[in-house]
Amino acid sequence: MIRWEAGRVAASVDAWSGVVRVRVDLEGGGSLRALAYTGLVGEPVPGERVLLNTNAVRRDLGTGGDALVVARPDAVPDAPGPGEGPDSPTAPDAPAAHMMKARYTPQQVMVDAIDDPASEHYATMQSAHDLAGMPVVAADLHSSLPAIVAGIRATAPTARIVYVLTDGAALPAVYSRAIATLRERGLLAACISAGQAFGGDLEAVSVPSALLGARHVVGADVAIAIQGPGNLGSGTPWGFSGVQAADALHAAGALGGVPIAALRVSDADARERHRGLSHHSATTYGRLLHVPAVLPVPRRAANDSNIHAYVREQLESSVLAPAAARGLAHTVREVDADGLAEALAASPVRLSTMGRGLAEDPSAFEYAALAGRAAAELAGTPQG
């Protein structure tokens, strides 16, 4: 069930590409912040009545403390006349294609997809059958994205990077300020939203199609495939949305790419199941993955920290051994970590995972950056 609340916009708070955040005075008293996706509902203005979905904010589910604007009752446009509907070729910004995302929900949205027959990229996608050795980095958490990008850029400054947004968590690409900032700074060549996710620079029906589009439409040297913000974990062995990382790696392997599994590591998480190597990585890469993948770790050193030694032990017992029992041989790749701390500190995106920043949980970002560096090395792009 949806928890509905209504109120009037008191003021605009801030905005970024595709999103406006407003302060709403509620009809029942009190106020709260709300996000409006301008591509779905337009831009609410002060004084306007809005209808809100407050499920997540009222249950403190970690969506940033915001409600979602579902409708602007006083701003509903007139019903379109014949030939003037949103599917009309003459309608403003009308998609040429017929792909629907967030399908069969009240806010399903029609998009142009690269793999739709009406797309300008359709001929390219029809003839795209392999990734030609392109590295594909998959990870559990969206917060790994800027760290992976930092690792790639620190190693190959001119690499062309495409982010594939999977539909494991937040569906609207515009929800992520990290994507917006990385695109604005030219650090990502494009975002392709795959499956039910929408709102990227390009749209794709599936993750395999999005990866092929990254390579053949955008010309990527490296692709990164991760769910959006809002990872769901239940504490059960299999009940977490990050398990979807295996799907991306399966697609990479099947299409002739190089699957690279970014390890989720923490030396600060209070939950035992996420200390050192997270059980999410152990389950996904040790028990679910059915293609061999590259597992980047820091190069051994005489002064290795306890966390690195612990992660190697966990890798052996919870990833490599279970995979080997299924006849699968992953490759543990030692990666030079020199310069990565500086690259992470210079990230234009604030690094944060589960409320912890770079200073509080450096390993979380270091291992993601190692995966980025490994991808840059394996892509064969010019390195700085």
Structure characterization notes:
28% of the residues lie in helices and 24% in strands. The chain has helices at residues 38-41, 55-58, 122-126, 145-155, 177-184, 207-216, 245-254, 279-288, 306-325, 340-345, 362-379; strands at residues 4-16, 19-26, 31-37, 49-53, 66-71, 99-101, 109-111, 135-138, 161-166, 190-194, 202-204, 222-227, 258-261, 265-266, 276-277, 294-298, 331-335, 352-353, 356-357. The strands form six sheets. Strands 11-10-9-12-8-13 form a six-stranded parallel β-sheet, with helices on both faces. It has a five-stranded mixed β-barrel with strand order 1-2-3-5-4. A two-stranded antiparallel ribbon has the order 6-7. Strand 1 and strand 2 (19-26) form a beta hairpin. The longest helix has 20 residues, at 306-325. It is globular and about 60 Å long. The termini are far apart. 48% of the residues are buried.
Give a topology summary.
Elements: E1 4-16, E2 19-26, E3 31-37, H1 38-41, E4 49-53, H2 55-58, E5 66-71, E6 99-101, E7 109-111, H3 122-126, E8 135-138, H4 145-155, E9 161-166, H5 177-184, E10 190-194, E11 202-204, H6 207-216, E12 222-227, H7 245-254, E13 258-261, E14 265-266, E15 276-277, H8 279-288, E16 294-298, H9 306-325, E17 331-335, H10 340-345, E18 352-353, E19 356-357, H11 362-379
Parallel strand pairs: 3-5, 8-12, 8-13, 9-10, 9-12, 10-11, 16-17
Antiparallel strand pairs: 1-2, 1-4, 2-3, 4-5, 6-7, 14-15, 18-19
Helix pairs in contact: 4-11, 8-9
Which secondary-structure class do the elements indicate? alpha/beta
Choose one word for the global shape: globular
Distance between the termini: 53 Å
Strand order of the largest sheet: 11-10-9-12-8-13
DSSP E strands, number = 19
Separate helix tally = 11
Question: What quaternary form is this?
Answer: single chain
CATH architecture level-2 label of the largest domain: 3-Layer(aba) Sandwich
| Main beta sheet | 6 strands, parallel
Give the SSE order as H and E letters: EEEHEHEEEHEHEHEEHEHEEEHEHEHEEH
Uncertain ranges: 79-92
Which CATH class of the largest domain applies here?
Alpha Beta
| Total tally of structural domains | 2
Mean pLDDT: 91
Helicity level: 25-40%
Work out the radius of gyration: 22 Å
- The name of the CATH topology of the largest domain is Rossmann fold
Beta-strand portion reads 15-25%
